[in-house]
Amino acid sequence: MGFLLFYKKKTKKFCIGRNNASINEQTTKESIHTMKQEHLQPVTVIAGVITVSTSRNQEKDTSGKSIQAILTEAKILIRHYAVVPDKIEAIRTELYQAIRTCNCVIINGGTGLTHDDCTIEAVSPLLEKRMDGFGELFRMKSYEEIGTSSMLSRAVAGTIQGKAIFCIPGSTAAVTLATKTLILPEIDHILSHANR
């Protein structure tokens, strides 16, 4: 007897069903919560924020500041912050610098399709494990806000040396969406799995 995971458009929620009969939504939430708790280990999240932009500096970096504000509100320590140009080597150098002291690095900007967008090209080859679901969920949530334009996002996430790395678009709306609704709810879970 297998379980099926399906998405209810009407309620915009995922449900689990068995033999074509959906299970009570409350029971499902409780089961998922219990499963998550079994996998969680005590972990201290230490964050790094990297903004990729040729035109912005730290003073003009509203997206980087938004990420930091959200993390600070969640009582997450931020130990690294930088703004780097859209250059593969600059992004990689800063990322390696960040993971020396951080176990969660959020890189914003440079994930689109223009000729100088190279964050994905810089980071993807370095990922030891990819979290494909992160990009898929980000685009799904973005679709609810901006429609089909969400397909232009190449958001990606994964791990390097047990550290969680997230590459997200650089708009303030995008960083807020990704940080609040995807990264914060799952970062303890991700780091627990990545360091087992």
UniProtKB/TrEMBL annotation:
Statement: the UniProt record of this protein carries the keyword Disulfide bond: no
InterPro entries for this protein: MoaB (IPR012245), MoaB/Mog-like_dom_sf (IPR036425), MoaB/Mog_dom (IPR001453), MoCF_biosynth_CS (IPR008284)
GO biological process, alphabetically ordered: Mo-molybdopterin cofactor biosynthetic process
Gene3D superfamilies the UniProt entry points to: MoaB/Mog-like domain
Record GO cellular component, one term: cytosol
Annotated SMART domains: MoCF_biosynth
SUPFAM superfamilies: Molybdenum cofactor biosynthesis proteins
PROSITE patterns in the cross-refs: MOCF_BIOSYNTHESIS_1
Similarity comment text for this entry: Belongs to the MoaB/Mog family.
The protein's name: Molybdenum cofactor synthesis domain
